[in-house]
Write a structure and sequence with these properties.
By secondary structure, the chain is α/β, with parallel strands linked by helices. The protein has a single domain, classed as NAD(P)-binding Rossmann-like Domain (Rossmann fold). The protein is 40% helix and 15% strand. It is built from eight helices and seven strands, in the order βαβαβαβαβααβααβ. It has a seven-stranded parallel β-sheet with strand order 3-2-1-4-5-6-7, with helices on both faces. β1, α1 and β2 form a beta-alpha-beta unit. α4 runs parallel beside α6. The longest helix is centred in the middle third of the chain and has 26 residues. The protein is globular, with a radius of gyration of 17 Å. The protein starts with 7 loop residues before the first strand and ends in a 7-residue tail after the last strand.
């Protein structure tokens, strides 16, 4: 029996890359998965079913509260519970590294809308299903807030806001036995991020090269590296941990 047998997990941005790895990792521990994404998530659903669990795909734009509400309702109607929310959906791979003076207000606000408002919307959507019995919320931040990565002020600001939001929501949701924590990865090879350096407009070495040289553990980071911590924060092993950010970047930055 897996550590999450009988649990239902909603994972946003789970159609590919890191989100799909989270989904498969939780499914292998027994969780039933809701793959929520604007992209087609059927391949992720099939991978989960092939691993021996169950899953559905719900097309979800996390910046729209009504779609997040529909996502949570679909999870409950299908599986009878909502126990875990893994807030992974974000704008990252399409961001162009460029001087901050060239970052428009529209670009800045779009990143905040998806990366921050999206996580808030999802927490609001699952709360009615968690408030009677408790639950786990795992937000995905970034160790970039410790590094101050140039060329992407909107992304770094959004991930800093997620940490602040996590603390605020941990205070409010704690009375309902809901844990709210943040994982802060470094740059991780994935379908969403592998083209990142190809579209930059700053004269910088590849981001992975910069991070690799600065890490204590000198190897590339892959999505599977992140699964163990996500599992820990989704199980009762972390029952007395809330409002925290755990940096997960191979010793690139210390917090």
């Amino acid at each position: 029996m897996g550590r999450l047998t009988g649990k239902v997990a909603i994972i946003t941005g789970a159609a590919q890359g890191i989100g799909a790895a989270y989904a498969l990792g939780l499914a292998k521990e027994g969780a039933k998965i809701v793959v929520a994404d604007v992209l087609d998530g059927q391949s992720a659903v099939e991978a989960i079913k092939n691993a021996g669990s169950d899953a559905i795909y719900v097309k979800t734009d996390v910046s729209k509260l009504d779609q997040c509400d529909a996502m949570a309702k679909a999870a409950f109607d299908t599986f009878g519970s909502v126990d875990i929310l893994l807030n992974n959906a974000a704008i990252f791979g399409s961001i162009v590294l460029k001087p901050f003076m060239e970052c428009t207000s529209e670009e800045f606000m779009k990143v905040l809308e998806i990366n921050v408002l999206g996580q808030f919307n999802c927490m609001k959507a699952v709360f009615p299903y968690m408030k009677e019995k408790g639950g786990k919320v795992v937000n995905i931040g970034s160790s970039s807030i410790n590094e101050g990565v140039p060329g992407m002020p909107h992304y770094v600001a959004s991930k800093g806001a997620i940490m602040a939001l996590t603390r605020s929501m941990a205070r409010e949701m704690g009375d309902f036995k809901i844990n709210v924590n943040t994982i802060a990865p470094g740059f991780t090879h994935s379908a969403g991020g592998n083209n990142f350096d190809k579209i930059k407009q700053l004269d910088l070495p590849p981001l992975e090269e910069l991070q690799l040289n600065a890490r204590c553990i000198k190897r590339e980071a892959v999505p599977e590296d992140l699964i163990g911590l996500a599992l820990f924060l989704s199980t009762d092993d972390s029952a007395f941990i809330t409002g925290q950010m755990i940096v997960h970047d191979g010793g690139l930055s210390f917090h």
